[in-house]
Fold these 4 entries.
Entry 1:
Amino acid sequence: MITLLSMDPVMLGGLVIGGIVLLIVFLFAFQYFGLWLQAWVSGAKVRFIDLVMMRFRKVKPKLIVENRIAAKKAGIQLSTAQLESHYLAGGHVTAVTRAVIAAGKAKIALDWDIATAIDLAGRDILEAVRTSVNPKVIDCPSADSPRSTIDAVAKDGIKLCARARVTVRTNIDRLVGGATEETIIARVGEGIVSTIGSAPDHLAVLENPDGISRTVLDKGLDAGTAYEILSIDIADIDVGENIGARLQADQAAADTKRFQATAEQRRAMAVAMEAEHKAEVEKNRALVVLAEANVPKAIAESFSKGHLGIMDYYRMENITADTSMRSSIAGGESPDSGAKGRA
């Protein structure tokens, strides 16, 4: 019998290396044996070589096997190739698998290819299926909005502040390319403003707030969105300020300022014209003074040329004195007294 001590050292080294290699291969394969056995026992068989190759493709074998088993138990046939391709594409394999299972249980038509497309588009497919089964309520305006109410003004000028709640469920067929919650909120807000604005007065809205819901629903606001509107309920409606009266007061104040500006302009023009007239009077008085200054010169020239005698001069002075006396008796100032004084 050949013992280890009597064996050739080269052969002994080869056996040791071979044993180590076999041990490594066994340990490498053993980590997939549990997954293979789990899949085989669950009826969702996966080839052992496929489990090994998943590691080289950088795919998590446990994730693929567990989701395949879950789908199989729910009566849905999913191949490992389908699960792997979606994983390698960056999708959420577990979420999509659960969404397809939930849709099948709820009798909602949801194909695996459509579900993966929705997931890769960035939508939460599992949440979409849950919302389709269990409708959710959207506040309008939303909690993230800086405004807490939707404000609108009726025809009588009274502002109404309303809050609405919209019950929606996901429309799987329109989930790809359909508008999101923000569009629903915006359309509902627009419908509320339009309905209140067309009301004859605010009392009509307060008496029948459900009229807003009916009017908004009739407009088909869910067209082109990923949701189907089930109901629109007015949660609260309050009376605000009288916008019409405030606008009229603002208009009256603006008209008053405009009229005041016009009156001030006219007053300024009148003052300017008065100043111009005074300046014209002073100009004319200056011309009179200049003309009167030439009178003594003319009299002296007449004396020198013999056109005026001394008696004629005295008679002229007597007439002037008599005129001044009569003017003073009558209570008026002599027409030429001021001019002579200035001269």
Entry 2:
Amino acid sequence: MRRRRILAISWILGLLHCGAVPAEGADAAASVPAEPHPMSYREMARTMQMDDTTPLGKLLVDELEWRVGQGVDGPAWDVQGWYGTDYNKLWLKTEGVRLGGETRDARAELLWDRIFSRWWSTQAGVRHDFGEGPSRDWLALGVAGLAPYFFQIEATGYVAAAGRTAGRVRAEYELLFTQRLVLQSQLELNAYGQDDPERHIGAGLSDLQLGLRLRYEIRREVAPYIGIAWLHSVGKTADMLREAGQQPSVVQFVAGIRFWL
């Protein structure tokens, strides 16, 4: 059926090209298009299909910045890259922040991503926490995708040794003022199933992070930005940070660059 449709389209195009009515004095047979060569059909079929099996890759440095404020200056980063097909990808993600010369919180994740609907995929893999206190390793399982009104959402659950559990939700939205001037907003929530005093983490909702970054895309691949970041610890986590002589809530101005390859 599909081939018949393509052949019919080819006949119609041939008629339009040659003219449905033969010119005066011309051979009537010349106005009748010949049946398309089989090679032409194969070429047309290829143009009508999308190749979703070719592996591709991308590296996105979403945040590479310096933060200043409340006497705790330092760098921060958010980098992710993937390689694979439309249906299966291998993701590598890392993010962290250094305050007052110490890595306050940082993580790296290696995830397998499998699409299960038009806008959503499931992700499974491992996570490694490093920085302040002993490092922790987790198994990860979550979903990521595009919610209504173009919100980028990530929701992931984690399980570690000694019965440790954790959850993380991140939402991101971009508002375009022009084709090059973009306001990026981010919200992240972290929660833990039990206390981890060595890393100054309390059970329950641990912290929330809010960021607003205004970038100008010199090229689509390169965009400097300025903005503001708010790191706010709550509950037992806030109490543990106070006991350790750290500020549970920090507001900082940021300046950095975003680029991708």
Entry 3:
Amino acid sequence: MTVQHVKTTRLEMAYECAGPEGGPPLVLLHGWPDDVRTWDRVAPVLHAAGYRTYAPYLRGFGPTRFLDTTTTHTGPLPEHILDVLAFADALGVARLTVIGHDWGAWVAYMLAAAHRERIQRIVAISVGYQPGDQPTPPNQQAQAYWYQWLLGTGRGEERVRSEADEFTLHLWKTWSPPGWFTEAEFQETAESFKNPDWADVTLDLYRERWERKGRPQLKIEVPTCVIHGAEDGASLVSSSEGKEEWFSSRYERHVLPGIGHFSPRESPAEVARLVLAFLDKTR
């Protein structure tokens, strides 16, 4: 797909768009450390079903750039939420169906919670909803979040700035069962980590996640589908269990046996099937 660009007040956002002209729009949000290539084998199935997809590179990734080059560029989660709303405004899309993986799932949840007038429904992949301030996770999940604790230190900052490829490749290898990607696939996506703001955005989001206080505990009132790999080595599958009380509309959760953190890449046919079934039920 051809990379296109649209300007918001803060960014020149790069994105890929495909599918039938006039088809119902779906916004596909990638995670970290990843980029829009995560949707390569999911999006064509959505297109065949009549949907049009818009997959932006998030701030700090790939060809997306800040318009103001004179300031330090940050990337806390609330800014990503505003980015997506501004992206939709620039495209003329009034109400959104958002499908997000990893960081994209966090953004989808918060869009649905805080901007439900703009959101029709969401699909959140590999992340459970965590309203309010972030509690200290259970020990097993805390161990899986070692990279987030590392990024809160000066040595972690040095690692992500100077050894981005080695660091993120290790995460790809350990967050899912082996054999799910090739070296060429990783290198293609790792080009997105060469964005000059990638390290700053990465560090800022993870640090803000654990340091920020006073987040409201909001229920989600739009239809929601959660898809989680049973072998996820980053966000453990237990982290998305027992969340039903936070959803007042349709809520469904699917666990994929034998699949790790990168389920859109590892099991694209099943992810696409679940997404289409959910979209059909919530049409």
Entry 4:
Amino acid sequence: MKITIVGLGLIGASIAKALSGRAEIRGIDHEGCVIDQALSQGVIGEGSSDLSLAGGSDMVIIAVPVGRIVEIARGLIPHIGPDTLITDTGSTKAHIVECIDELWPWFVGSHPIAGKEVPGYSASQADLFSGKAAIITPSNTTKSECIERATWLWEECGARVTVIDPCMHDELMAVISHMPHLVSFASMSFARDLHIHRDLLGAGFRDFTRIAASDPVMWKDIFLANKQHILQLIDGFIGELGMLKEAIHKDESARLEEILRTYSTIRRDLYEDNR
């Protein structure tokens, strides 16, 4: 199996490391130093900044920010064979699937639910996807063989595969990933001077704000690509904050406790086992 990975950042390089010994891996990246490092460490067998390196591949994985995925797919197509599978790792799917479906018959969208707040090749690890979910997002026209080959990919990386409609994927991700990142990012506007009191920062602040250290370029693209769902959630979040503000302003102790208890119950129900 010859696999080319476009983008050797956290996700792309982790895929390469996870597939070590299971496939012949080529890597494409715009940073020459990343290519050199991946070659010297044996993470890839060949590397280049040129998309033509993908020629002769059985599968091409596009692991770049969502704003560039369609553009990369368009650039790859002149170089690959007629039955080469293209998949991607983007955190939004509907627009990407719609666009690439029109360009290439052997495409299926993917999204591994794995990552870290630290981006880049140096943060990659072979077990990043182990035990994690990987979502495959076929359209109505996706070939069954594309789904099978993408399933093989993620299972070889150690992930658990789920198949979901692209639009449903984006709606779910807005709630469970995109909005939490947005709120964590925004919370940093109140923390500009906290470095003065770093010794007082507890686990709660650290855990809540951890994802605010994530890659701004990647998340800018995600927020814009999924803005329909995110804007709706922002309006809903403003409403929740307004309700809390009113209860606090009016010293409505019982109402405030009831609201907080509802939130707390929802959180516990999400993670409690054997319910």
